[in-house]
Amino acid sequence: MHCFEITRRRMLGMIAGAAAMIALPGLAFAQSLDEARQLGYLGERPDGYLAQRDPSAPSWATELLTEINKGRELKYTELALKNGTSLDAVQVVAGEKIIQSLAPGTYYMDATGNWVQK
To answer: How is 3-15 classified by DSSP, letter by letter?
Structure first.
């Protein structure tokens, strides 16, 4: 159990540093993600990926979701390989960190699959 905690701490640090690279390739992109979250179009899932919360989300929001999730999947896979851990473990830790850092008023999916506003 102790080894898992060391690995978990190390992953948390790397995920925190990588989070900006995953979701923020440019300022306009970051503003679009923030906007999509604030408008309730997109929300965060506990597995570290974005989901479409609002079925009437505009195409720019769904395209953003696809691009960000592709980037996150690549980064999570890279982190799992680098740390000798499972992709699932990285995704769970990433999901926790992302949800913790969300701005008030944004949405995330809880463990039961319900949308919750922070």
So the answer is: HHHHHHHHHHHHH
Q: Could you tell me the strand order of the sheet in which 42-44 lies?
A: 50-52, 42-44, 107-109, 115-117
C-alpha dist (Å) from residue 7 to 40, 72, 97 = 34, 20, 15
The whole-angstrom separation of Cα 29 and Cα 27 is 5
Listed residue (73, 72, 60, 75) closest to 29, CA to CA:
60
83 near 10, Cβ under 8 Å? yes
Other C-beta atoms lying within 10 Å of the C-beta of residue 27 = 8
Positive or negative, the CA dihedral 75, 51, 86, 9 is positive
Joined together, the tokens standing for residue 67 give 């691009």
pTM of full prediction above 0.70 = yes
Q: Which two tokens stand for residue 19?
A: 């989070």
Q: What is the pLDDT of residues 70-107, one digit of tens each?
A: 999 999 999 999 999 999 999 999 999 999 999 999 99
